[in-house]
Each structure stands twice: as C-alpha cells, then as structure tokens.
Amino acid sequence: MSVIGEFTVPAESFALADALRSAPEMRVEADRHATHSPREVLPFLWATGGDFEAFRRELDASPSVETVSVAERTDGERMYRLTWAKPFRDLIHDMIDHHAAIIEAAASGEQWSLRLRFAEEEMVSAFQEHFEETGRRFEVRSLWRPSGPRQREFGLTAEQYEALAAAVREGYFQVPREATATDLGDRLDISANAASQRVRRGSAALVRSALLIDEDDGGGADG
C-alpha cells in the first residue's frame, strides 16, 4: 500500500527562494495537480497576501522559471502560469527517480510544504538520504497510509483542512451564517481574504477528490 508524507524543504533547496523572500507575507499554493512528468508538474501557482509587483519581478528573474504569466487575477489573489527552467525540472526528475510523486505543494516565507506519495514506506528513507547527500533537506512532518481507495486523503493541504474544520466549527456554512470570513481569519491568524480563499479551494479539492474521482483521473480503470 502506498504511503503519503508531509515534508518541509527550504525554498533555497526547492524553488522561488528570491521571489518568496521579496514578498514575505505571500502565501503560494500549487493548483492541485499530481503528475510524474517534470514538464507538467506545478504549472499553476496561486498567490495571496503579499506584494504582487515585487513577487512578479522576482519570478521573472528566477533561475527556476523560463516563462511566467498571470492566468487569473482578483484584488487579493493571482494565479500564475509557469514554465519551469531546466534546474527545477532536473530536481523533479531526481525526485521521480527516487519514487516521489508530488500531490500538493505550498510555500510561505522561505519554506515549502510538500505532500508526496511513495509506493512503499521504505522509499521514504532512501529519498531523504539521497537528498541529504545532495545538500537538500526534505524533513518529514508526518507519514500515513491512505485509509481507503483513491485519494481518501481528499487532496487537502493541512491549511485547507484547518480552514474547513474551523469553518464548520464556527458556523461559517450555517444558514444564516454564524461566522464571517473575518471571524475565520481571526481564528486562523490570517487575513479574511486568505481564509475565504482557503475555504473555497479546500471545498473544491474536497469535491474533486470525494465526488468527482472519475473525472479527475480521466475515468481510470481502477474503478
């Protein structure tokens, strides 16, 4: 049975260190996209809560990125479309060669949080040892085995799970609503806009994983 791991890794060892440093309040989340192709991994990044102009300047200058464009824009959020440069693609190749598939990725400050899937638990230690030898420290925060078939972890980041759980507990989904986005933001120590976005993206991920499995997997043969 496969195993899922929550990892942290310094941005200097992964990607976009200068861009994240230029906008320290920025929160970046990869649009949900599990793949084994280094050319297709993390093509879209959502960014909220920081200096978009400074962040974009550093994205344009980043050695990790070949091209960048804004795919969607709101007052408090941008979705960037990235084409990754060879150094980052080589890193993804190396991760794939050591049996890791990226399920979720998010970053803030100078650190990335990654959710990785491995076919066997023994592969996790071999993965960590390899990257420690190359000077990249992937630190395990938690490991677990999916308790049911096909993405029963529901594709949520830890932050999205926390936001959805808080929304339910505080009555955000009640009619009439018992808590506002501002209330959620105060509870989570983030802005109201960031709280709203986490709930929205978490809800979308939950629906895709729990209710739209066939569509998400392209009608795979596992049933």
Give a description of the structure.
Residues 6-142 form the Bacterioopsin transcriptional activator GAF and HTH associated domain. Keywords: Transcription, Transcription regulation. InterPro entries: BAT_GAF/HTH-assoc, HTH_bacterioopsin. Residues 156-202 form the HTH bat-type domain. This is Bacterio-opsin activator domain-containing protein. The chain is of the alpha+beta class. It has 2 domains: 3-144, no CATH class; 158-216. The chain has helices at 17-22, 52-61, 86-97, 122-133, 158-170, 181-188, 192-211, 213-216, and strands at residues 3-10, 27-30, 44-48, 65-74, 77-84, 101-108, 111-118, 139-144. The chain has an 8-stranded antiparallel β-sheet with strand order 4-5-3-2-6-7-1-8. α5 crosses α7 and α6 crosses α7 (192-211). The longest helix is centred in the C-terminal third of the chain and has 20 residues, at 192-211. The chain is globular. The two termini are 17 Å apart.
List the helices and strands and how they pair.
Elements (H helix, E strand, L loop, with lengths): L2 E8 L6 H6 L4 E4 L13 E5 L3 H10 L3 E10 L2 E8 L1 H12 L3 E8 L2 E8 L3 H12 L5 E6 L13 H13 L10 H8 L3 H20 L1 H4 L7
Antiparallel strand pairs: 1-7, 1-8, 2-3, 2-6, 3-5, 4-5, 6-7
Helix pairs in contact: 5-6, 5-7, 6-7
Organism: Halosimplex aquaticum
Pfam families: BAT, HTH_10
Protein name: Bacterio-opsin activator domain-containing protein
